[in-house]
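Fold this sequence, please.
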Amino acid sequence: MPGFTIRPLAASDRRAVAFTFGRLSERSRYQRYLTTKPALTPRDLRLLLDVDHWHHEALIAYSPPPRAPIGIARYVRLKEFDAAEVAVEVVDGWQRHGVGTALMVALSEQAARAGIRRFHVSMLRDNAGARALARKLGRPNQPATVIAAAGNVVELTYSVSAGSSGPAGSSGLGSSPPSPPTATGVG
């Protein structure tokens, strides 16, 4: 697919966040939120848009014209200054086209500039795409490591690898995303 753009999420992106959520299937929502989530509440929207671009960063991807939001990736810094919880969602029609990878590469670069060295990811055990994305984005020779597992939820950690490059989309952040993975979303 043609290139897409990535930019920081702004407080004014309420409609874009709601639009993106509305384009996720029930399964994609379950994989992203680890529970059934038929709608975003006003509180959910406030929390998702409360981005300070240091402790809580979020990036949004847009399709080529007619420009529609197609994915969002975010991190929230943990108590350990150099670690953050990370999540990504990509609308169903754009999954497996490199959007998740491009978002995570750009987010990793932002995180590295903010002093974050490790990402923590909570995902469903059967979310093969999310596991593949975490493996792909970690530093070479430092694979994602399982830090906890309970029921169907697995928590992984991996070292942030900034500076990856490749040909998938276009980012307004000066990064070039790598080639597309077979990922559905992390989180």
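The radius of gyration is 15 Å. The chain is about 25% helix and 25% strand.
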